[in-house]
Amino acid sequence: MIKVHFENPEIQEIISKAMIRSFTHGLVTSITSENASISVSDQMLAGFQKQIIFGPIPETLKDSMNILGVISNEVIEFKTHRLTENLHLRSRHLERYDFEKEWNNLGYGRIHKDERSIWGLANSVSLNYCGVFDSKDSSILWFNRPIGPVDGFDWRIIEDFVSCYRWDEITALPALAEIPANYQGAITFRIDCDEAIASGRPLFELYKEHRFPFSLAIKTEQDFGDDSLRLISDILDAQGSIVIHSHTHAPEWGEPSLRAGPKSRGDAFFEASTALQVLNEKIPNYKTTYAVSPFHQNPRVAIPKLVRAGIDGFVGGIICNDPEYLMARGGGVPFSEGIISHSEQCMFHGDCVHPNQDSLQIYFEAIENALKTETFFGYLDHPFSNYHYGWKSEDDRLQAHSRFLNYIDKKEGIWKASLKDTLDFLWDRANAAMNLSGDRITVTYRAKRRSNQGLKARWRGKSHIL
Ligand SMILES: [Zn+2]
Predict the structure, then answer these.
(1) Under 8 Å CB-to-CB from 158, ≥6 apart: which residues?
(2) How do residues 374-426 score in pLDDT, each as one tens digit?
(3) Ligand 1 center–CA 175 separation, angstroms
(4) pTM of the prediction?
(5) What superfamily would CATH give domain 185-425?
């Protein structure tokens, strides 16, 4: 069993949920201060064959730690080691952006220099970011950050440590893959229709040629003209999907206590329930329980209200706000129950492509990193309205998407999934509980399955279909 214990209740909740996303309810126990029947003593720790420590480096290990990650010029460089071999880029910026101070297409969160923040470095003077200490019958993995690598591809180091590291000598527990059984990678794409739904048509036709199910996230307070309804119907006929993108696109899901703009007429419950109701009127035979958060903003107070409105999955994740909802793995979220999230912070816009001499290199890096770490990769664009998101024309945009799709099509074993199919699969994955009986992994589900895709796990250096 994996036991999670931190003094700080916020870290306790965030990391417990993160460990469950990777190792499932079946293998993870959260030891909170209220959970008085179990106490974490030094003797208890001494009994563990594997330990993961987030925060300052333990004094006793200072000189004997094998350092795996070093900070140099605001970038963490990972050294070659068994635990870092599944990182494609082998580096992580403390903070980087592709567009304003919002989007990091390379898919990592922000590491503050502020030692008072749980998202900062525990010791900002030290150049060491992470390391491993091995003794004959135990190993300790350490990160110089109170919250660890919860918001980046380097979370894979945690999974590899638990599931495969020294598995022939000390304990190892399976990590649930974020890619369905029988696939090597999984990708989802959507456009966020803040307005002008019908103008997404050319992009839909291009994706259809590439047999990539298309998805729309729709802000429902807008004109659903005949052209829009025809596009929606064609998308659904081609196995695509529609989710809500709130009703008015108010900042912070319209939460009045926060930064909501003048457009907000209610709160997160109003935004989600009205959007679901309007969508139901416009597309009577189609049901969704999924949302894309406006601006990818997810204030904690909004999440239970989304649940109350009937939402049980949302897409978010962005470097500039709500770091607890920028998650390396999709699944259950901290501070709420009964709802999952998937972080998709790769924005495919002319704003990012043209300043780089039309290069798609950042997107290729992002997708390679996702494939190597077995991360379900999501990216987005917008339909044209008065604002063109940096694209020079529809042709210019289609050409860039086409180059990216050709790149994806050259890969083997990729599941190109609609947003609904993505969240259905991640819903099943979040509700799965792995258990071990001898050398076998068994799985039970806590909720009715929604996806026809199966699960797989990594354990003792191998992939296991569950
Ligand atoms: Zn939007």
Answers:
(1) 22, 52, 141, 148, 149
(2) 999 999 999 988 888 999 999 999 999 999 999 999 999 999 999 999 999 99
(3) 34
(4) 0.96
(5) Glycoside hydrolase/deacetylase (3.20.20.370)
